[in-house]
Amino acid sequence: MKKLIGTILMLIYCVLMHSVIHQVGGYFADYLYCNSICLQDNKAYATDATSSNAIGLIILDISNPASPVLAGTGNDSHILYDIDVFNQRAYIAAGALGFQIWDVSNPTAPILQTTIDLGGTCEQLMIDGDRLYTAIHYDGLKIYNIAEPTPVYLGGYFTNISAYDVFVRGELAYIADNEFGLRIVNINNPANCYLVGSYSSYYGVKYLHVANDLVFLSDAHNDNYLIDVSVPSSPVLLSTIPDMWIKAAYLLDHYLFAMQNSPGTGDKQLKIYDIANPSQPTLDSFCIIQSSATSIAVSGNYMFLTVDSEGIIIFDISELSNPDLITTSHIPASANAVELSGNYAYIADNNQRLIQMDISHPSNPQLVSQYAFPYTFGEMVLDDNLAYVTAGVSGLHILELSENNSPPASNFNLLATLPTGSAAKDICLSGHNAFVANTDNLLIVNVENPSNPCIGYQFTHPALVDYFYLAKYQDYLFLTGWADPISIIDVSDVSNPFRVATVSNPSIAGGIAIKDHYLFQSSYDFPIRIYDISNPMSPGYVGIVSNESSPYYLINIYEDYLFISFWASNRIMCYNISNPAAPILARDYSWTLPTYDLYYRQGLLYTCNHEYGFSILNFELPSSIADPQQTPALFSFSNYPNPFPDNTTFCYQAKENHRVELEVFNLKGQVVSHVHSGNENAGGHTINWNGTDDQNQRLASGIYISRLTIGHQSAVKKIIKL
Question: Less Cβ around it within 10 Å: N or C end of the chain?
């Protein structure tokens, strides 16, 4: 019964993630704690959230968002908060000090001109026209005319209000009241402001964001609200967002970007909600951030996040649909590893389960069966209908796999469990032997009879401290630990293995992989190294894959491709290694999730991660997000309706005259319809498509990819035919 319930829950959680954002650049400095950011005229103005390093104000040139350049800094020893810029002057909320005015006419040398005491604590402010609106804790709203360098106090609203945030549009100010909720105030005459409407929340609110007739409110802890303010005198609650600890948010079109920083858990996620129907917001996707983010700003196709202890991260949000993503199946626990066998994917998670999924239809993977281990999963190798699994101190497990697609089938038959003494880690198979990295030693296990495995030899060496990673070439085993060099062990006689050579390790080992007679070695904070091991007793250094390095990454080799997964930046780099000595970059892909393991087969990339589960990507599909350093697109691209039953209309807005091509691909990357080709003028255009292929045959229902190419740039969009 428990297995049936688990199966049902897994099927319920199977969802499709639509959105993708990818990091294109940023400005990073040690111990730079940015608090807020303002974007204006190719400049980013950010405030410092600490008083220890006395940076104060940071100004960046963001003419190229992928590569921001420091223009200048203004030193101030106080903690600074929100910032807005008007007429070459920066206005900065300075807490109990009030607000500061900086001359930023020369960005290389901003000058603090004056500080205005507000009589209370101000952390949020906003400029609208030539007026400055300041939210004051336990006091209210103060309004200043800032047409001239010396601000002139005009009035405000102070009736039983503790203002924490303010947003102004037209003659209305939307105020986050930390003791009440939302207040909407008419500020047409600052000397005589009056309340228009309000919405009371249980805890009050600390910040808000407004777009169109929608207000997002949050108390930064428990409660988050979407409010309809189309009738300002009668705000209406449409829905609540269930997440706790949302610290920053931004409304854009029909999306809500919400930054969740959960204290104590380490969860730092930028969540993307589809609020096209604000009464029923749906989680569209989310991006894992390594540090807490404090504010969000958007300019054009780029989103800027201020991040604790790092600086500023910049994302490309020009295409919020992810054409590469075929499907995602949510696994409630963290997914650690994935292997494929025939039409099945085997996924291991942090609930000590091995999950079997039918992937015969990649767009709709189905849970088939699952098996519980007694200890945390280590590694697995599949061989025909057998799975060899290491599971920590519980040792080596050998399971027989069957293919019964009638849930809740039990497709795992445990043949044997072999205690290994310490924690079993990596494993590789060769003939009748399994080589097991066992933390404290190397075990050579005879598995000729899978129901009765036995340890044939236990190998230790004083130069090896940890036994974590394994790879085999001919009669030689390559073995390394956490901070050990790679030891090369002759296992031609499994009853008498001995170490013959070593490969240096410049840092903490991240993994090893072998292609032909070349070994690829990854180490934290160092690029991946290549060694020629044609003579295993004398490995020769060849070079590095690229100059890329990262604190956390893994490497995998499938067919003629080397995949490098960077956990810290949610990035996958793919190199063609048909000539292993000279890797060629084939794909550089960033998406919203870190990839903890992957498997590549026939153009599809099967990935798993700790945050969401099991995802399938079309890694050969032509994509506008393949190059994270690309320049902003010269055009916009959309279609409606989507999904569509028979016909859909593609719309694009081109800034220049160019040749235009519109194509539709299936999920195998094959062109099924050349919809349009020709020369077009700049401006807005529409192209109708009736859902047929080049032979005028109606296409089957399913997911397709449209690609619009104008000149040398392309944009892609996932479309769904019903």
Answer: N
